[in-house]
Design a protein that fits this description.
Rossmann fold, 19 strands, single chain, disordered N terminus, 7-stranded parallel β-sheet
Length: 483
């Protein structure tokens, strides 16, 4: 099987049939519904590993997660340094109205500070007191942060590590559960040609849950928040579970593309559900409310807008257009996309400048990952270059695969081309409605360039206006309904 022929649509549909057939959403280990906690993790690795197989048919053994000595050293150094930042300890927080689990993937803006672009724009507009907690980005925290009242999970990580060293809280599965989980491992092996040790994965998840929940209880009892805001919910099931037990409403802020092929949000099967999903979801616009089946009531999915886009779009109004093509990279597809960008740049008839915008996850090692790009004369932009909204404003064409940035670029009126790489199906709506065109080669590019037109459409379907007002008013409404 060739990478270019792989379909996330086919993989996800096959995956949902598998989980429905085995009734995995009802699978309990002890008193814990386990599948909803590992679903995203399993599907991501099924699809990623199938991509790496290319034409190979043999079963690929995949370790979950990969541990390297270097990472242990970096983590140990990071945790030791964290000890000296005692004021960032969340266990020492005071009572606050709103607790925010912010994004560790911050952006450095013109003031020299690292912003959580999903929450920092509106925190000061709230009439409630707030405290934010976040995990590290890699093995560091991005400083200085814009967020005023910020705490770090590093102290909890340190205590969890201590429990691990002392052997406290390790979960041992009953024999009957081991047998059942091993059968699921075998099913995955037969269906997807990949070996994932489900028994070990479940043991790890339940052990983490047992070790970490007492600290979450202490944090929540200390802060006593009226509500909790999360930038991303999947991967935070234990925290959401604790909030539900303490009857604290949770709200997720949309942070990226949501499609029916996203296992963190899409629950289409008859038995599909998730008990550890937030109580509310704030989406960028009405399109995202209706594009999939969520595991919560429709009335709890609320369109609020995209704050960063709305603000930075206004700030970049005076920037003039250039004959410029903007490539939007991502770690998953960057190797193929960067090779295509280099090939396109060699075309003598091309009278556009090419800008290759890296994803934050590519900043540190893109030269090793994309050697052809590193040797080329293309202008590559990382966090030290222009921000992406300036690039949107000055460009005429954008090329990407499935990034949220593609929707943002459309808001700037860019002609949009979707590169045919694994995951392009996330953009199927744009392709079917001819808002964007799909292409696979340099020849396709020039054909599309001659034929593509800037399609008039109302981008408010994707991004509702007056985002700060919408967010603050809906938070206030939810808090008042609690009383």
């Amino acid at each position: 099987m060739n990478k270019r022929d792989l379909s996330v649509k086919e993989a996800f549909e096959k995956f949902t049939q598998f989980e429905e057939r085995l009734s995995l959403f009802d699978l309990k280990v002890g008193d814990v519904l386990i599948w909803e906690r590992i679903r995203f993790h399993v599907f991501k690795n099924v699809f990623t590993t199938k991509m790496m197989q290319e034409d190979k048919e043999e079963i690929v053994s995949h370790q979950f997660p990969k541990r390297k000595l270097k990472n242990y050293a970096l983590k140990a150094n990071f945790l030791l340094k964290s000890i000296f930042q005692i004021r960032r300890n969340p266990l020492l927080s005071k009572k606050r109205d709103i607790l925010i689990l912010s994004s560790s993937r911050r952006k450095k803006l013109s003031d020299g500070k690292w912003w959580d672009v999903f929450t920092d724009y509106f925190i000061d507009e709230l009439e409630y007191s707030t405290v934010s907690i976040e995990g590290p980005f890699g093995f560091r925290y991005l400083t200085p942060p814009k967020t005023k009242n910020l705490r770090y999970f590093a102290y909890i990580d340190l205590l969890i590590l201590l429990k691990r060293i002392l052997g406290i809280g390790k979960v041992k599965l009953p024999s009957e559960d081991k047998v059942l989980l091993d059968k699921i491992t075998e099913e995955i092996s037969q269906i997807f040609r990949i070996k994932i040790d489900i028994r070990q994965l479940v043991t790890d998840i339940l052990t983490i849950r047992k070790r970490i929940k007492p600290f979450y209880v202490r944090i929540l009892q200390k802060i006593k928040p009226k509500i909790v805001l999360l930038v991303c919910s999947y991967g935070k099931e234990e925290f959401i579970e604790t909030c539900k037990e303490l009857k604290i409403p949770t709200i997720e802020l949309q942070h990226g593309v949501i499609t029916r092929f996203h296992p963190g949000y899409s629950f289409e099967g008859k038995t599909a559900h998730k008990t550890t999903f937030p109580d509310y979801l704030f989406t960028f616009g009405d399109y995202w409310k209706n594009c999939i089946n969520y595991p919560i009531a429709k009335k709890n999915i609320i369109s609020v807008g995209h704050v960063e886009l709305e603000i930075l779009k206004k700030e970049s109004e005076n920037i003039k257009k250039k004959r410029q093509i903007l490539f939007l990279s991502q770690p998953f597809i960057g190797y193929e996309l960067s090779k295509f960008a280099v090939s396109l740049s060699k075309e003598k008839t091309l009278d556009y400048e090419i800008i290759y915008k890296l994803h934050p996850g590519e900043y540190s090692n893109w030269k090793e990952m994309y050697p052809e790009l590193a040797k080329s004369k293309l202008k590559v932009v990382d966090h030290t270059g222009k921000n992406i909204h300036e690039l949107f404003r000055e460009s005429m064409i954008q090329i990407g695969v499935n990034s949220t940035a593609i929707y943002e670029g459309l808001s700037y009126g860019l002609k949009t081309m979707i590169f045919n790489a694994p995951g392009y199906e996330y953009m199927q709506y744009l392709i079917e409605t001819e808002i964007a065109v799909k292409m696979s080669s340099v020849k396709d590019f020039f054909t599309s360039l001659r034929n593509i037109q800037s399609k008039d459409f109302d981008d408010k379907i994707f991004f509702k206006r007056n985002s700060i007002k919408n967010i603050t008013e809906n938070i206030k409404k939810i808090i008042e309904e609690i009383k």
